[in-house]
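call fold target=Putative aldouronate transport system permease protein
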Amino acid sequence: MRTRTLKLEPVVFHTLNTIFMIGIAIVTLYPFLNTLAISLNAGNDTIRGGIYLLPRVWTDQNYKAVFAGGTIYHAFWISVARTVLATVLSLFLTSMLAYAISRKEYVFRKPITIVVVMTMYFNAGLIPSYFLIRDLHLLNNFLVYIIPGLISAFNMIVIRTYIQTLPEGLIESAKIDGAGDFRTFISIILPLCQPVLATVALFVAVGQWNSWFDTFLYASSKQDLSTLQYELMKLLSSSMLSNSSAAVSSGADPGAARNMVTPMSIRAAITIVASLPILVVYPFLQKYFVHGMQLGSVKE
């Protein structure tokens, strides 16, 4: 009887665990699938509600409205450029600073840590920040997307904490072999920090990709620097303003009613367009989590 109970325990556990994980997957995927269904549904029909996993009246009019302006393609590449450059530079400089202040022999590591951490709690505000950007001649400059966010105090603390968990013997061995601090950082620290770097890279990339307010503040007068999120925000605002007049005209024209876009439908299409690149990139970052964990499992 006891043997049969022991054999049933794994079956019960795996069954309950599978049911639980399926439930988690449904809860996680449903909002995205619902947004996708709304984006593919006719705008005037979406107002009725009741859209769940499949569109009721299929249409591509919402996506046509998103891509109707030719500026959206150029803005997409601006967003890609700022995301890639900012992520790479921020990772390299932040991890370099984290390695420096993780070294106990560095005299100024505590004062620098205090100064960096203070920026997490104190902020001068929007107006002084704007004046600083203006005095640095970064207004209507592509570098305004890169330079202000190169160092993140939170990311620096995360990377420093991870570096402090690495075996000290690795760094000592590298120095015995004649490697300097920079060579040790490039050859030893960076490869072992792949898990935390991949995590921080995702944080930085998502933040850069979703950012539109800095474009509004510092580069709105230069169309060539407009980002995808800023263009989508302008599109959503214009659709909300023009929705009432479109509804009036569609009452006399049934064909126009079928092709009408509403703020709800255009917002769903914008959400899909904005989130799709990140969803495509994430699986490639995920493999570095596992690979980095294997590299980091060093035994002394």
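return ok
Residues 35 and 271 are 8 Å apart (CA to CA). The domain at 70-226 is CATH 1.10.3720.10 (MetI-like fold).
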